[in-house]
């Protein structure tokens, strides 16, 4: 059997803690964009508000998205994520298709089959993924060449706006709005777009529902097998105060057991809790998993009076992530909601020269 070549990022992870970027949505907020800005000419006639559909900025404000990528890279990020958290036909339908519940109907598998069969939504999802990956690729290569340090594009795959694990109808606990195959189909479209745009790896992130994530991972495997090309896969869950995934309620250890067969490049935690509350669950994951550990928490709790919408500033995040690193818990570090390029720069400075968690065995502080 021929051994698969080592990915360049794996070499980086053996040498130091890699830095992943911060929050696209939070940073977009600092640019003061309006509804008119996200619509542009192309979506001028859209019937629903689009400002919360940040993925569309990759199509209507590519210069801004590129500037954000540049700033995160110059702040020290080794990995930058594509602006595709909601870039599936299922999620995009929330902004472009009338909600049947407003007319006495309901969202169900029949409704979502029409979404998946809609060529316009499918084309839009493909375009967002492919273009966003290309934008990331351009800036990763540009900054990498200028600094002599390779940078990597992570194709971001979000959790969707629907759940395979839970019923939205308290009177019908067996009801699901979508099927596993429908979710898998939506993810297959996204994966192919991200790969076509030049992603170095795929990141299944902010996992609230482990079954949704399973559909994404099956979709990735199918695309790899059918297209004859394979990329490293990173997996990152969001957990609540008890340490369980928020919808499927798997403990950290159970979550790892459910996904380790994929042999991911890394597994980790992001979003959800601030870094202080995340520590014990990250520690448990570092103890159980035999792959690289990633951690990019929210900048504390939401605070609408803060410029970023979250409590913690750059030095706060640097202090918390610095402790995680000193305790031997992490190989990849960065920030989720509330983390701007300034936060990432502070984290990168704090972790410079700190040894990464040893891959293949666990070093957890007592």
Short summary of the structure?
By secondary structure, this protein is an alpha/beta fold. It has helices at residues 8-15, 24-29, 35-39, 57-60, 62-74, 89-96, 109-117, 119-147, 180-196, 210-227, 252-259, 275-288, 314-326, 341-351; strands at 18-19, 79-81, 152-157, 201-207, 233-237, 266-271, 292-297, 332-333. It is built from 14 helices and 8 strands.
Describe this structure in words.
The model is unreliable at 361-366 (pLDDT under 50). 52% of the residues are buried. The protein has one domain (8-351): TIM Barrel, CATH 3.20.20.330. It has helices at 8-15, 24-29, 35-39, 57-60, 62-74, 89-96, 109-117, 119-147, 180-196, 210-227, 252-259, 275-288, 314-326, 341-351; strands spanning 18-19, 79-81, 152-157, 201-207, 233-237, 266-271, 292-297, 332-333. With 366 residues, the chain is of the alpha/beta class. An 8-stranded parallel β-sheet has the order 1-8-7-6-5-4-3-2.
Give a topology summary.
Layout: H1 8-15, E1 18-19, H2 24-29, H3 35-39, H4 57-60, H5 62-74, E2 79-81, H6 89-96, H7 109-117, H8 119-147, E3 152-157, H9 180-196, E4 201-207, H10 210-227, E5 233-237, H11 252-259, E6 266-271, H12 275-288, E7 292-297, H13 314-326, E8 332-333, H14 341-351
Parallel strand pairs: 1-8, 2-3, 3-4, 4-5, 5-6, 6-7, 7-8
